[in-house]
Amino acid sequence: MPAYSLNINNKNYTVEADAEMPLLWVLRDLLDLTGTKYGCGVASCGACTVIIDDNAVFACRRTVGNCVNKKIITIEGLSEDGSHPVQKAWQQAAVPQCGYCQPGQMMSAAALLIKNKRPSEPRDQ
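The structure corresponding to this sequence follows.
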């Protein structure tokens, strides 16, 4: 099996996997980064969202072969202590319920903030 060098949460990893293996399973099964969740497997629910090169991406549909030389951030990489602004906002708003899909939602919000530091509500047109 080929080996792939990946930069995940500012750490370098080498994994042996089939080139078509979804990043989701590399993260969860090979690297034990289980914060990224499996939801639907068809990029509909967002539970598996990670940030790749500053973009929110569904890890269930991105293959490990397409992740080399990319900067990947998982929910574990937002902060070690829950101090990322999105994590703090989630706590302040008491958003968490069961928590299963929360990591994907937080990663989508964090990716938005990378691109737009001060997002606002859309204006009525």
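Strands lie at 3-8, 11-16, 49-52, 55-58, 71-73.
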